[in-house]
Amino acid sequence: MIHGPSLGIGAAIASLALIAAFFGLGVVGHEPELAIEQASPAQAPDMVTTETFLANGSPFLGDPDAMVTLVEFGDYQCQACSRFFHNTKDALLEKYVNTGQVRMVFKDFNIIGPDSVTASHGAHCANEQGLFWEYHDILYENWTGENNGWASAENLAGFARDVGLDAQRWSECVETGRYSHSILASNNDARNLLKLTGTPAFFVVGPGDKIAQIPGAQPFSVFEKTIDAHLEQ
Q: Whole-angstrom Cα distance, residue 215 to residue 200?
């Protein structure tokens, strides 16, 4: 892989203030997978609106006009998030997303470490070139653990090249840290508005702003039951 040392230095500098803010807010730090007994209507505070689940998130995966939205709050270093990606996501794509019934959105909730923040930057910068989901997927395809270096700046640059991004343009974006505000805002939505304590956490948003929460990397059957209930409205 062709990576200049400037990427690692620049990315580290650009992310420094954001990571410091995350530590100051208590956002970064290993936490267990969110544990709630079952999917249930979200008891959201008045400040939570449909926009809370869309703002500062990824582009839609699927039909932008789909009736139901599945929102994931995740961390690219999270083991349970990786498990959802490998065990459940493809089935959801096949039954719901590819058929135009559900659109998916990914929002950042960085709870594990600094590499999680840098990976989020990489995904947002890939979005500038229309390759958010390709970059999102390659991150989870290369997941090997938490805080073990697989999401280093050098490796993230290699993933950018592998999915066909303009490497120089992507590197400049990461180095400037221009999505720091969006990433921090998404984290604030997760922790302060929705009171989440771990990843992944899912919300199914249906017609009439009906919202149900699905905690953790549940099996496909749990998603199926909840999504079908929303599609029947």
A: 7
